[in-house]
Amino acid sequence: MNKIQLSIASAAIIASGLFTVACSDNNGKDAQPAKASANTEKKASKEAAAALPNYRYVDLDTILSKYNLAKDYNEEIVRLQNNMESQMKRHQNEIQNFANTMQKKMQNNGYLSEASYKADEKNLAALQEKAQKSMQSLQSNFESSAMQAQQAVNDSIEIFVKDYNKTRGYDAILFKNATIYINPDLDITEEVVEGLNARYNKVGKK
Q: pTM of the full predicted structure?
């Protein structure tokens, strides 16, 4: 009886071993086609890339919307614009309130002499001149800041693209909006955005 049980146990172990070997053989056989398929796809991808023209393009609007430097500058420009609008409203209210006060004084015979009315007219003119000079200064500062920001972003993109292309060797990198149609496979916008932000973040950490 013990011998029968031992034989059964041995047979079970042997069967288990055969099952394991069979699985291993099947896994090996399954892995080979998968590996071959991956190699085929990789080769096809390289061949497809080699068949493309030796130039690429970028979508500038996408870059400006995703490049952190451009977004930071845009926030600064919006802040300056909001400040300019706020100052304009403040000057307008100040002038309007003074003009309303003059109007009420006239209606209530508050001006006892022509000289007092002339003095208020002079003060009103001074407020208007002050507001005009202030707004001209703010406008000039806004335009100068906007131009500097645009130049800084353009220079940063241009410098990066030139460095980027040193390892790519493209004959040209174009702007998408300068073309009527261009093969989407030539789009490197996301790759350029990723590189720009990686470089900008490194600079920001220093």
A: 0.67
Helices 114-166 and 68-107 pack at an angle, to 10 degrees, of 170
Structure tokens at 103: 């109007």
CA angle 15, 21, 23 (to 5 degrees): 105
pLDDT in tens, 73-97: 999 999 999 999 999 999 999 999 9
Two tokens at 87? 């100052």
CA angle (196 as vertex; 195, 201 as ends), nearest 5: 100
CB atoms within 10 A of CB 173: 17
Nearest alpha-carbon partner for 154 in 50, 69, 44: 69
| Alpha carbons 164 and 101: distance in angstroms, whole number | 65
DSSP-derived letter for residue 187 is B
Per-residue tokens: 92: 């307008």
